[in-house]
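idk why but the lab printer keeps eating my pages so im just putting this in chat instead. protein + magnesium ion:
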Amino acid sequence: MELLSTPIDFLKGVGPAKADLLKKELRIFTYRDLITYYPFRYVDKSKIFKVYDLNADLPFIQLKGEVIKFETIGKGRAKRLVAHFKDDTGVIKLIWFKGITWIRSSIKLNTEYLVFGKPTCFKNTFSLVHPELDLWEDYNKKAHVGLQGVYHSSEKLSAKGLNSRGILKLLKNLIPLLKNDIKETLSLKILTQLNLPTKEDSLINIHIPKNNNDFIRAQKRLKFEEFFFLQLHLLKLKLIRTKRLKGYPFPKIDTHFNNFYNNHIPFELTGAQKRVLKEIRRDVQSEAQMNRLLQGDVGSGKTLVAFLSMLIAVDNGFQSSIMAPTEILARQHMDTISEYCKELDIKVGILTGSSKTKERKELHEKLESGELNILIGTHALIEDKVKFRNLGLVIIDEQHRFGVSQRSKLWKKNDFPPHMLVMTATPIPRTLSMTLYGDLEVSVIDELPPGRKEVKTVWKTDSNRLKVIGFIREQIKLGRQIYIVFPLIQESEVLDYKNLMDGYESLIRDFPLPEFQVSVLHGQMKAEDKEYEMKRFVDGVTDIMVATTVIEVGVNVPNASVMIIESSERFGLSQLHQLRGRVGRGAEQSYCILMSGNKVSTEGKERLKTMVENSDGFKISEVDLRLRGAGDMMGTKQSGALNFKIADLVKDGNILEYSRNVAIQLLEEDENLEREENKNILKAYLPYAKQRNNWSRIS
Ligand code: ADP
Ligand code: MG
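predcted complex ->
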């Protein structure tokens, strides 16, 4: 057995109780798990701060001084030990909530100590909570260690002596054992090319850095490696798919496409639309199945690109299907696409949950006979009963709303899987896209059609309510329509309606708008009621649409020019951006008013400011990633794929970028990693791939 696979129980300093806790609390089962349990930050042990220098932004720091007085304050759970700690510039408090008696008896008064902790500030006094102390005398005997790792621990572990320092001690026991047992996982070529240290040196220096330079190189190597194996894996998956999965080649661009493109297209394509269309054409012409993700901001014109792709399918004798997440959206696509098809000899049908049995039957027949060229629909079209004569292209709109299993069901609707184009109006940063969709082809529409006026965005607090209501009146008198959106406070559809009505009623109680017609739309309504309300708004019968976020996706009402988002501080950035995308669709100047309470958290403020200052969805997504981190941004479903031990998608974008390039180059030279020079990589990759494949695939 490999030494690294040794159970953690065997390590010196780890008894049964500690082993148990390490497993339960930190999921450290083996030597390998411990050696890859990296510090989350470092302290510069060679630097000693003064009380006078402290500020609340400092990370963990060291101070040298004496405890001049102890106090025990509070009762029960609030009971705490406070030590007044003094250096030659001032006094701060050291605070402990646990282990009070033991700590009180082990610290000597008026004796020099080195304390270590993170300063926090409360009412202008600084304190260190649960700091660690070393006798100055002891510390001074040792050589200066420079950087020292700080490890995440837990209350239970700390109680057993496994606080950050305790974990470091275990590592100091482990590292000498592993000498010569840590196998290199990269090739000499890559190490030399990127000037990276060996795996062994990196693992030692990440825990116990010899000096700053070795530490930085170790960190870079481990980050690189983590990204590299993921990229290698994603690129391998992509290779396997394009090799194994035969697709239906669409070699021709023929009458339907040309006729529409030359005679009926309502506007000239933007540069980005043209580029993406070319990318799609290249894919569908080849023998392999296309798997392409199309990212484009709201309003960037994805539908037209989708339609042109479907025309290519028709020209090659294939049917296509476009699936949307909601009935409203499907109907909207139906309207747009039927309009495009007016002058073409193309049959379009729609299938949703509310399609009647008779319609369905007719549709089924037409699909099987091949009479129908394009089928638009919701989830309903995944139903097994739906059979196509020859489905060649599937387009999924707002792909994040669907799961993988739904997608794969569509694959099975023909002998070979059809070409897939998945579209999303939720732009994500490039680093995330490379990680989550690294095995897909990715296209980006990064340009809006010309002539769009930027939506004027302002942030108002409740005290400006009267003015906002005045503005609503003014705009409606000018003939415009208004959206007022309320957040879903509880994550429950039953409460959805209540939240909405409570919110709206309290709004109009203070500021009635009796002269206007109002539509209400929420998640609990039946599809046909939603449809009805939506239609009234689309037709201009109603002036105001009061809604929850059900209107978030894709709805298009060009005459609606004001979006008011209530309690906007409760929304995430991408949702705010999606909502704002509902206006600015017509010729008129549009507005987005972000309403909030007077008290907003720092992060909430940053979100709202970001919305006011930016209109580009990609830029907004970068801020979102920085504020929330990748896991929260993409939801728990995908967080498995986004868990890195040391690499950081926010900070290490450049390392990610070159790790992908190195992986691409490697696979070009040695697709199966068969060469002698790549044997380390192969050996490390095989178990990695196995583990990775056991995870559920991301959508
Ligand atoms: P999304 O990418 O959000 O799905 P849509 O496809 O709904 O965007 O397009 C938004 C609007 O832009 C539609 O009204 C569409 O007709 C219009 N549009 C699309 N492409 C162009 C273009 N090249 N020039 C002008 N308008 C366009
Ligand atoms: Mg769309």
